[in-house]
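User: Let's play a game. I give you a shape written as tokens, and you guess the letters that built it. Ready? Here's round one.
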């Protein structure tokens, strides 16, 4: 009989998780994050509603695994390129110089943490909670799961203000997770000393270097396909190893999962693997966890205590003040609406509050009713703060930046191409060694060229080359091109394109994710195509209706059928590349994240489509 009840409860929870996004879509409730809707649905079928689901071994295990995988994906979401060297700051539309994103974000988070500490002691003095440390973590945490999609939808990921908001959330995620582990080791009896956490981080460092060593091996790539899927197996092994080690040293299992996500993020996994992990997590385990959060939450017991009812608005006000006051530093550079809306978005909090509340309840630092109140407040912030942000944030500030392209080496190809790119979505800059006076006058009259002393790393580092999103290296020396391209990749440049004529060099660079072009191969390929497919070449070389590649990075269109695509214009979808698959598009074809779309149409409409689909990528 117990087995029957277990299966029935699991069936109800899984069915609820399946129906939730359908209901949101059907009733156009897209302003509610799916994870929040899952908690609300859990409330309906759980203790606060019909009470048709009961906790058992199956649900407990799957819910715990969902929580662990959620923390793993939270670590995976962290983009460490945000911590890389600062680029040259441009001038804002109001005439002020852009702030340094890292300095601004670090200062704001320091302010958030100090303000949270002060508010926590006030809550302790008021008798709402006994532990100021735990309350500080709860107030200072920020939900990356809410911040990232909101910034993407607003096309702000490539703007300075978007990067500051993102970096504040990333720092908050890292710091509060580490401090939560410290909190457990200090306050929970039977857990190890705080210094034992160093063993966990030491193991993480060792595993990172092992992963880095084996990642680029040829046999790994071979084993990543078919039924082996070695990359996915490696990730799950890493999670289990670090979760097990985390519990062994007396820390929470979620810290091990979070650390596993951070390590995978540092190893720069390919987007296909990330998509698989997201699909598995958000498609199965994580929805079960969030539904069970709602199932176990007894809202009516919260309403029965006047003290907890009073805490809900006070905590909401505290969360808002802890973010709005420090964020007001941005008033130096931005208008009031931008600053206030940024503060509201940073108030959103969910996963780590649930983690802290769950741990606090288990350790008996807080009551189950207090834990439920904290989770309820987190749910409320996740609903209304993104809505306020979208309403307040100035639309003109959301204009997407142009993609910066640095050309190293001025020649007939790069000079001509830089001129063509200027009128589109790109901001090209040419860098070349010092020229003769006569050549300089001719070049500067037609092109914008930045002179450098030589092509040494020291000279190039004094420019903005390594801060560009695309670097094209086309000097006359292919060995120099190869060494500079490797250096650019190590400096964190997302796309590096090098001119290489040697087959041996080409193979070596491609293994390091460096794109390569060759004058000989380009000419030969073009001539063969002219002989075999002259019409195709005409399409490719036509300035008005050529073929263009667009990467689908806007979550708003994820899962949308082409026949429902709202974009107007003369753009036609020719091909869709999804991972290693090539898809011929038709009306029922669904767009998916990271699809590479081959389209044709007039340039103005293609540019508009690129802005809509491609300019949401995390920087």
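Assistant: Ready! My guess for every position:
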């Amino acid at each position: 009989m117990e087995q029957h009840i277990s299966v029935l409860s699991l069936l109800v929870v899984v069915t609820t998780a399946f129906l939730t996004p359908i209901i949101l879509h059907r009733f156009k409730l897209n302003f509610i994050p799916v994870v929040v809707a899952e908690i609300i649905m859990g409330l309906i079928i759980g203790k606060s509603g019909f009470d048709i689901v009961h906790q058992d071994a199956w649900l407990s295990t799957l819910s715990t695994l969902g929580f662990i995988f959620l923390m793993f994906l939270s670590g995976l979401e962290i983009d460490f390129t945000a911590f890389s060297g600062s680029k040259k700051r441009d001038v804002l539309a109001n005439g002020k110089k852009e702030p340094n994103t890292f300095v601004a974000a670090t200062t704001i988070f320091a302010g958030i943490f100090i303000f949270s500490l002060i508010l926590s002691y006030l809550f302790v003095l008021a008798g709402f909670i006994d532990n100021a440390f735990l309350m500080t973590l709860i107030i200072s945490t920020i939900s990356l799961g809410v911040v990232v999609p909101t910034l993407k939808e607003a096309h702000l990921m490539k703007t300075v203000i978007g990067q500051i908001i993102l970096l504040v959330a990333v720092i908050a995620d890292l710091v509060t997770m580490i401090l939560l582990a410290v909190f457990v080791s200090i306050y929970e009896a039977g857990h190890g000393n705080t210094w034992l956490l160093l063993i966990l981080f030491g193991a993480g460092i060792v595993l990172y270097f092992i992963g880095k060593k084996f990642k680029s091996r040829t046999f790994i790539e071979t084993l990543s396909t078919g039924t082996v899927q070695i990359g996915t197996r490696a990730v799950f092994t890493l999670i289990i190893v670090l979760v097990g080690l985390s519990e062994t040293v007396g820390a929470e299992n979620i810290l091990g999962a979070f650390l596993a996500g951070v390590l995978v993020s540092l190893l720069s996994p390919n987007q296909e693997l990330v998509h698989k992990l997201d699909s598995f997590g958000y498609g199965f385990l994580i929805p079960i966890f969030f539904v069970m959060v709602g199932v176990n939450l007894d809202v009516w017991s919260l309403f029965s205590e006047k003290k907890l009812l009073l805490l809900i608005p006070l905590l909401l006000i505290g969360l808002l003040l802890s973010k709005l006051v420090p964020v007001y530093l941005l008033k130096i550079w931005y208008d009031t609406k931008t600053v206030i809306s940024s503060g509201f978005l940073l108030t959103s909090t969910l996963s780590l509050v649930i983690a802290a509340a769950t741990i606090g309840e288990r350790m008996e630092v807080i009551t189950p009713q207090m834990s439920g109140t904290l989770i309820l407040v987190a749910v409320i912030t996740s609903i209304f703060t993104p809505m306020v942000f979208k309403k307040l944030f100035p639309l003109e500030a959301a204009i997407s930046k142009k993609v910066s392209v640095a050309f190293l080496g001025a020649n007939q190809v790069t000079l001509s191409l830089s001129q063509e790119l200027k009128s589109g979505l790109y901001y090209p800059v040419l860098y070349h060694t010092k020229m003769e006076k006569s050549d300089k006058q001719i070049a500067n009259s037609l092109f914008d060229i930045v002179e450098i002393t030589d092509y040494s790393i020291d000279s190039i580092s004094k420019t903005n080359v390594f801060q560009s999103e695309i670097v094209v290296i086309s000097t006359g020396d292919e060995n120099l091109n190869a060494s500079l391209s490797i250096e650019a990749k190590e400096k964190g440049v997302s796309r590096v394109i090098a001119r290489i004529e040697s087959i041996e060099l080409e193979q070596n660079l491609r293994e390091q994710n460096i794109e390569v072009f060759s004058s000989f191969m380009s000419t030969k390929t073009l001539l063969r195509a002219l002989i075999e497919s002259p019409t195709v070449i005409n399409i490719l070389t036509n300035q008005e209706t050529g073929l263009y590649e667009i990467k689908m990075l806007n979550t708003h269109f994820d899962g949308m059928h082409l026949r429902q695509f709202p974009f107007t214009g003369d753009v036609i979808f020719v091909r869709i590349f999804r991972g290693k698959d090539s898809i011929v598009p038709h009306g029922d074809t669904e767009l998916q994240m990271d699809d590479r779309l081959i389209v044709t149409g007039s340039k103005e409409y293609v540019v508009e489509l690129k802005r809509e689909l491609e300019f949401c990528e995390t920087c």
